[in-house]
Amino acid sequence: MDYAQNYERCCLEKTSAFQRMFIGVLSKKAAQLGQNSHKIWSLKWVLDEYFSGRTGLRVMDCGAWNGWFLSYRSPAVKQRIALDFDSHFAKELKQCGIDFVLADMERGLIPLATSSIDLLAMTSTLEHLSCPEKIAMEIRRVLKPGGIVFITVPDIMKYKFRFWNDITHKRPFTHDSMRFLFETHGMTTLELCAYNHNLFIAGNLFPRGIHRFLMRFRGDAILYVGRKPDA
To answer: Would 32 be classed as within a structural domain?
Structure first.
């Protein structure tokens, strides 16, 4: 199954004129920072929030798709790694300086060394896996002490039956189940809130409190940020 190609065709919503306006503004702001994409803001937010002043970072996106989360180029980041079970974008990612790892997390494994990653992201991916408990164990294993995990999943309480529009969805989550899953596996919860990707990105144009307030009403997904305790 060519999942990447069909996901774009069947599951992505077309951008509205209002969204395109914000994309234009954020693209110009990104260009002012020497970046070439409006997609940089999620990774930039995590680095600014949790890794200020750090260098030599290894960042990994599990279920990376086209690598949008890794598009931010920062001197603080030593290595960007994209993991996916579909190699559709592998060549394109390598051309952007992103290392590609072909792996199927449905087997419950992340093929990296123990304590080797500073930041592990997983956006709209965990709900596609039938083994979240094994993946939570793997996330804790591959993170360095003090490492950060950044995860987004649909909120089943808001998605309801729309959750099953994507036939590859397997496990629904709530705020409580996300906290339970990761705290049970030794993570410290730093952030657990409503999440709307577009508002989260657009929030870089506004004070943090404003876009968090808006996401409370428009966020139909969940953002979980956790930290592996220091050794």
So the answer is: no
Distance of CA 16 to the CA centre of its chain: 23
3-state SS class at 12: coil
For residues 1-15, one letter each, b for 16 or more C-beta atoms within 10 angstroms of the residue's C-beta and e for the rest, the string is eeeeeebeeeeeeee
Per-residue confidence band for 103, with pLDDT thresholds at 50, 70 and 90: very high
Q: What is the 3-state secondary structure (H, E, C) of 161-211?
A: HHHHHCCCCCCCECHHHHHHHHHHCCCEEEEEEEECHHHHHHHHHCCHHHH
Kind plus residue range of the DSSP H or E element containing 115: none
Closest to 83 measured CA to CA, from 69, 103, 58 = 103
CATH code at position 125: 3.40.50.150
The reply to whether 24 falls in a domain is no
Q: What is the CA radius of gyration of the chain?
A: 17
Q: Whole-prediction pTM value?
A: 0.90
Enclosing domain of residue 45: 41-227
pLDDT at site 207: 73
Q: Is residue 29 part of a domain?
A: no
Instruction: Give the count of domains, the chain.
Output: 1
Q: Is the pLDDT of residue 168 over 60?
A: yes
Mean pLDDT for the stretch of residues 193-202? 85
Q: Residue 70 is which amino acid? A: L
pLDDT tens for 42-68 read 999 999 999 999 999 999 999 999 999
Across the range 12-18, mean pLDDT stands at 67
Judge whether 156 lies within some domain.
Answer: yes
